[in-house]
Design brief:
single chain; 5-stranded antiparallel β-sheet; globular; 146 residues; 5 strands; alpha+beta
């Protein structure tokens, strides 16, 4: 959705075309909420570090927020960030259900257009550990479809 978040869309494209998401795990998956991935630094399946995953990013600088009125509903793809609204970098999440409490507080940059049934199959994490996933599923190969 480049009309909503042009900087975030360009970042995702750059990371995908550089193959940096290939092998990156879904490290935080909360049933009834979302599936989070994109930690290039600590979340690659070859160098997966469970104690650090979710804290890393890419070598690119953080992005300024591009908040919009677009609601967080099932299939919405948004950028993960820290408490700082201008800290999004490479991590993103896919909504498993509606999450309107995120509206206006996180950047929406895309949506799942097909295959949501596969998104729902991503291994869920431990709810007592904020969705942390043991032996997480991974992105085999990320591609941009034009």
């Amino acid at each position: 959705l480049p009309d909503l978040a042009p900087l975030h869309v360009e970042r995702i494209k750059a990371l995908v075309t550089s193959s940096l998401y290939d092998g990156v795990v879904f490290h935080r998956v909360i049933e009834g909420f979302m599936a989070q991935t994109g930690d290039i630094e600590f979340g690659n399946s070859q160098t997966f570090n469970p104690s650090l995953v979710g804290r890393g990013g890419s070598s690119f600088p953080n992005l300024p927020s591009e908040f919009s009125a677009t609601p967080f509903v099932e299939g919405t793809v948004g950028m993960a960030r820290s408490q700082d609204p201008n800290s999004a970098n490479s991590q993103f999440f896919i909504m498993l259900e509606d999450g309107h409490f995120l509206n206006g507080n996180y950047t929406v940059f895309g949506k799942v257009t097909r295959g949501m049934n596969n998104v729902h199959k991503i291994k869920k994490g431990n709810s007592e550990l904020n969705g942390s996933v043991d032996d997480p599923d991974e992105i085999l190969t990320a591609k941009i479809k034009y």
